[in-house]
């Protein structure tokens, strides 16, 4: 109230004093001057009576001033208070005018309030009502003022309302908030929430009631509708239970179907990839090995598509898991580019990876899922880029400890995406062009799966695009830096200080080759065309710092790489430079025929960093007369497993109904130094177990007559307490819970198809370790 008084009376020339309980509560500046006070503290809290006697004011200095005193009693938050004004006749009129203006200002605020509000006197008559209540009840203000408050209550509630008002004014009714139906002027009814408070005089007696009204008609109707809906919902519980049961059965059927499809598709894939692996384990020419590697990678790409379908089902069921292991991110990206290079070449696109030398390569994380996401993004970029470049850029932020966050961007110069389509791009079955005549195919699932995979890894994915200028898809994933990566020593020391001339009309290709060359300690110069190459070679030789290599693009405008290579090799002064021709997949057969004549070696773009390093090293070793680097890493890896279990006295049984898969598994076991017997189904496996004391049974899970699960259970029943043969599942089922299902059937271990030689070797080692541990037990 003090702040309200100050706002109203501080500017006034009329002395104003407010007291509450006989003590001064407020005095304006004019009142301070009247009483001879220099500050309000000299008056506030002091009793009023000694200072105001009759028509006089006793000042602080003891002198008196004759005044005319006017008093008003009012109610505020602190209780009943009295306002005193001291003035002559003119001052009094001014004070009355000020009070009237302040009252009018207050009631204007009251009238403009958005909440319906009225005041009644001690007889229940409405004395004040605001505009909001008039509009709510449909009455004019003059129709309500002077009317009993219970007259606007619904007819059946008027007697109750009259009694309630009387009880409220006598203090017997304590309820402050309640609900009551009111009747509008047009006869319609509203349910209102009523908030009541008493108006008290300065002696604490009730002289009226302030009432605020809130319309809760719609709320009550909504509650009634909700109750009706709940009753209807409850009535349909049995029907819903039946529907849920049907849905669960359908989910089970879907899961079983996916498991069967997984097995039926992955089983022949095991043959394709397994046989290709066996082929790679033989002596092959470089060209044959490249073809076989292409078959293997294509098979793995097809397997990746199959896994995508299964992943979508797992994501929908919330059962997808992210496997974490050590990997080389640079090799993962190169694998993706090599797999998609033929597709890019068909569209004459330049496919490049920019992996700066200062960015870490070795991490621990979900490499398989990163490969899956990147494959999808690069394939999309190729699809929607009619000409130009698709560039993969890698960056990495390292945090505390070994934590890091890798960011991989795929930028293309394609058609771009409209801004209004970006928001829905990562939704399931969403496509930029959904018309029947759309130019680009696809299901609209790839980006949705990619988004969910990235988020499962704890990362984010997004896109920036401008129609007609291209798009950049990017994703970030948290990874752990591999503190002890497995590194194969390279021949970089042999190339340090050597000089290379890079010739390519594409600026991005030149930049990437420069980064790779520089990371090995080599020196380089980049040229955009063939016309300046011969002059550059002459100048370098005459300066005493000749080039040892020319990295030459096969397809360039003007003079192409083949013509330039022939010109260099025909010039005696510069013909000893080593020419490495870089070409697309589609032109590699043409370039291969040039090796040994006009070029020293050739590589397919996008060039793997390891391949470029190896090719430069071998070419330089041949020229200098030193032996080329030792056996390829894959031969050393294969040699590690050859004959590993020869003499281990392990007798295996293979239970497999597919003839191709039998051949794959038997050849792998032979590589490991073991010969196995074969059972064509689960029943044969049980019968052969009865006759021969096998040490390990490799058990396919889905076989005719008796499947692997049933065969495992039958063998466990036959064993008794002393004998225990190790049973290792070899299954193409890749659904969540497959491993647990195998172990529950009594199997000891699990290998997923397509089977890898190293997985088979590790499973056999676990069998031998378990047998050794059992032999040591008393």
Largest sheet: 7 strands, mixed
DSSP strand tally? 29
End-to-end distance, in Å? 94 Å
Query: What is the assembly state of the chains in this entry?
Result: single chain
Explained architecture:
The chain has 25 helices and 29 strands. The chain is of the alpha/beta class and 778 residues long. Helix 22 packs parallel to helix 23. The protein is elongated and about 130 Å long.
Give short descriptive properties of this protein.
elongated; alpha/beta; five-stranded antiparallel sheet; 778 residues; seven-stranded mixed sheet; 29 strands
List the helices and strands and how they pair.
Elements: H1 2-9, E1 16-20, E2 23-27, H2 29-35, E3 52-53, E4 56-58, E5 64-66, E6 68-76, E7 79-87, H3 89-112, E8 116-121, E9 126-129, H4 131-137, H5 141-144, H6 158-169, E10 177-183, E11 189-200, E12 206-215, H7 217-235, H8 237-280, H9 286-317, E13 325-328, H10 329-346, E14 349-354, E15 362-365, H11 367-383, E16 388-398, E17 403-412, H12 419-422, H13 446-456, E18 460-466, E19 470-481, H14 492-495, E20 499-503, H15 507-519, E21 523-527, H16 533-542, E22 549-553, H17 561-569, E23 578-583, H18 588-592, E24 601-604, H19 609-624, H20 633-641, E25 652-655, H21 659-671, E26 677-679, H22 682-691, E27 696-699, H23 708-719, E28 726-731, H24 738-744, E29 749-752, H25 757-776
Parallel strand pairs: 14-16, 20-21, 20-22, 22-23, 23-24, 25-26, 25-27, 27-28, 28-29
Antiparallel strand pairs: 1-2, 1-7, 3-4, 4-5, 6-7, 8-9, 8-12, 10-11, 11-12, 13-15, 15-19, 16-17, 17-19, 18-19
